[in-house]
Amino acid sequence: MQHFFETNQNEIINSLIIFSIFFVLQSIVRYVIRRMANSKRKNKGRVKLIGRYVIVTFFLIFLLIEAFVLGVKIQDLVVLFSSVFAILGITLFANWSILSNVTSGIVMFFSFPYKIGDKIKIHDKDLEIIAIIEDIRSFQIHLRKNNGNLVTYPNSLLLQKAVTLIEKDAIDDLH
Fold first, then answer.
1. Domain locations in the chain?
2. CA distances to 63, 64, 141, 159 from 166, in Å
3. Which one, of 121, 118, 113, 115, lies nearest residue 174 by Cα?
4. Cβ atoms of 107 and 68 closer than 8 Å
5. Helices 9-39 and 44-69, axial angle in degrees (round to 10)
């Protein structure tokens, strides 16, 4: 065991440094996301979800850097990543709408001007939806219409359509 530590001392120290940097960075990013979410009054469930997305991304980057520290050759990683990306490419092409909705959910977290409880009007070509935002999830937004019906609207479509915030005074005018 001691021989292992003596021969791999540099790799172990570098791995510990990278792990420490990863831990500090992910803590900082989580703090920044929470602060931003609190300032914009975002839903706690959405904050946790976005935090998980960011941490998984950081972890994958950490694994890539760690592979280089442990001496994995670039040629080996190229073979691995080309195989993984081929499988992912086929899978994501088959599930393109799911990927676009998740990506839209992340974009909406950082830049969507409406929040839960706001009444909005979605201007779609075939129909107009007037409803209150009940929940914003990873794949879709839940809207409650005046008649009590729940409408789930895909995040990717919501970013593509014109949306109007209906002010409290205007709500009374609609009835």
1. 2-94, 114-174
2. 47, 47, 17, 17
3. 121
4. no
5. 160
The model's pTM is 0.52
Q: Residues with Cβ < 8 Å from 53, sequence gap 6 or more?
A: 106
Residue type, 6: E
| CATH class held by domain 114-174 | mainly beta
Give residues with Cβ within 8 angstroms of 72, minimum separation 6: none
Nearest to 114 by CA among 172, 166, 150: 166
92-105 per-position pLDDT tens digit: 666 677 778 788 88
43: left (phi over 0), alpha (psi -120 to 50) or beta: beta
Q: Which residues contact 18 (CB under 8 A, 6 or more apart)?
A: 62, 65, 66, 69
CB 57 within 8 A of CB 78: no
